Amino acid sequence: MAKTIMIVDDSVSLRQVVSIALKRAGYDVIEGRDGQDALSKLNGQKVHLIISDVNMPNMDGISFVRALKQMPSYKFTPVIMLTTESQEAKKQEGQAAGAKAWMVKPFKPEQMLGAVQKLVLP
Predict the structure, then answer these.
(1) Where is the Response regulatory domain positioned along the sequence (predicted)?
(2) pLDDT by residue (tens digit) across 72-82?
(3) What's the pLDDT tens digit per position in 99-119?
């Protein structure tokens, strides 16, 4: 059975790039336009990993991770932040919210897949 990964990013093109790479690697993908959209799509189904941008309208990635970690079904779901933000303070804020990894855009799909394979829940 394929593992499910959620991509949360306000950029359609970025979601497509990530989605294609993940689907080629055998994952199922759910997409969210921003934190609010992503939360509305998490209806208790099993999600093995979430990849989220930081800067998004409506609800940014760090607020999304905080809200996610309040939900019992997703408390332990690993989150990779995929973002243009590279400042240490932002990384620490992301980690404090519950993010497991931080990748800076632009990224190589194989780099991202390596991180995904390490973090995806069994």
Answers:
(1) 4-120
(2) 999 999 999 99
(3) 999 999 999 989 999 999 999
Q: Pairing state of beta strands 79-83 and 101-104?
A: parallel
Distance CA 116, CA 109 (A): 10
Helices (H), the chain: 12-24, 35-41, 61-69, 88-97, 109-119
Write down the CATH number for the domain with range 4-119. 3.40.50.2300
Give one DSSP letter per residue of 41-52, joined into a string: H-SS---SEEEE
Which are the contacts of 39, defined by CB distance < 8 A and separation ≥ 6? 32, 59, 64, 67, 68
Task: Report which DSSP code applies to 3.
Answer: -
